[in-house]
Write a structure and sequence with these properties.
heterodimer, A: 316 residues, alpha+beta, six-stranded antiparallel sheet, five-stranded antiparallel sheet, 21% helix, globular, B: 53 residues, 15% strand
């Protein structure tokens, strides 16, 4: 894809970060300067900061954010914010580990003041009036983590190289916040040396506009994607303490659930099959086994294939 | 279903019914919801057995 002209090119020394507006159709490039540096990333809707990316929903695409994946905002908006245009294999991404913090270093090493992603994010987003509480979970780039058999995070050599940058295409006007992770001098994430990164922003081009339009037609057409004007409660609270709203009545979706009882006639063979499924797949009652089988088949065969988000991890 | 040897009662809520209705509208699994459930169950069994072969 042909990008527009480069409009920003800055180096971020260790341990700093920068909140950068990136407009719809523009490309944010994040580049290793020396290599092997972990980068943490936050992303806000530039027009409404309450909408920000959700690492949990990025994770639904897989345990690595890879080329072709979407940086989603949190539901109920679930808007595509940025698109993974180029994620080189040398950039192993992490969506499991939360950002590091001063408290983590104090707990681990007993030191009170160590560079950390939380404080770096806070300083970077402060330029736009956001508070430390507005920092959200980070998408971690060049963070070579894994999982041990007992479910603990493992950390491996950072394989980032300068020649292979990450490129993210903005699908809305965003405030993108890449920062140099501050943990990697005494933890393994950056091979025990903190190094600079650089960021570039390329203006939109007719080709990037076209790609955004294609992606929008694929990912912005859900009837249930909510906009702010559809929120029942939409004003941002200005006081910090929470108070109950008198006479408030929640309107839960499809509440109360209504049940129909359906009688299914099983042959001898069906019943043998049911036992087989109970032994091998779902160890429940007859009713549970049937329901689980039916819904699992539907999930494996009838989900919308375009929506990779909900189309992964189906196990027969 | 001719001469079923056993009846299984399945309780489905309105949301599950909505999903099953889309299969009923396809026409390949039967015209009644009980037929759809039975035939999709059989399709699932077939997939599982095939996968285990």
């Amino acid at each position: 894809m042909k990008r527009g002209a480069k409009r920003l090119d800055i180096e971020l020394p260790p341990v700093t970060g920068r909140a950068v507006p990136v407009y719809k159709g523009e490309v944010l490039q994040i580049t290793q300067v020396e290599g092997g540096q972990c980068v943490d990333f936050n992303c806000f809707n530039l027009r409404d900061y309450k909408e920000h990316m959700s690492v949990g929903h990025i994770r639904r695409q897989g345990l690595r954010f890879v080329e072709g994946h979407i940086i989603w905002s949190a539901p109920p908006r679930l808007s595509p914010m940025m698109y993974g245009l180029k994620i080189p294999e040398t950039c192993v991404t992490d969506v499991l580990a939360a950002r590091c913090s001063a408290q983590m270093f104090e707990l681990l090493f007993g030191i009170e003041k160590h560079t950390n992603c939380t404080d770096t994010f806070a300083e970077a987003i402060g330029e736009f009036g956001l508070t430390p509480d507005d920092i959200h979970d980070s998408l971690n780039m060049w963070m070579n983590t894994g999982l041990s058999e007992d479910g603990r995070a493992t950390y491996h050599w950072n394989t980032g190289v300068p020649e292979e940058p990450v490129e993210l295409l903005a699908m809305m006007d965003v405030l993108a916040v890449p920062i140099v992770c501050g943990s990697g001098d005494i933890l393994p994430t950056s091979n025990f040396t903190l190094k600079p990164i650089s960021i570039q922003v390329y203006e939109k081009s007719s080709e990037s506009d076209e790609q955004v339009a294609d992606l929008e037609s694929e990912y912005c057409s859900l009837r249930s994607q909510k906009s702010l004007d559809q929120f029942r409660t939409r004003d941002i609270k200005v006081d910090r303490e929470l108070h109950q709203i008198p006479n408030y009545e929640p309107k839960f979706v499809n509440y109360p659930l209504v049940f129909d009882e359906v009688e299914i006639g099983f042959s001898e063979q069906d019943f043998k099959d049911l036992e087989y499924i109970r032994q091998n797949n779902f160890p429940g009652t007859d009713e549970e086994v049937v329901l689980a089988s039916v819904m699992s088949w539907i999930r494996a065969n009838r989900v919308h294939k375009d929506w990779a988000l909900y189309n992964s991890g189906v196990k027969l | 279903m001719d001469n079923p040897s056993k009846i299984v009662n399945v309780k489905i809520n309105q949301q599950q019914l909505e999903v099953l209705e889309t299969l009923r509208s396809e026409g390949t699994f039967g015209d009644a919801i009980d037929d759809v459930i039975l035939n999709v169950f059989r399709a699932y069994v077939q997939d599982v057995r095939k996968k285990k072969e």
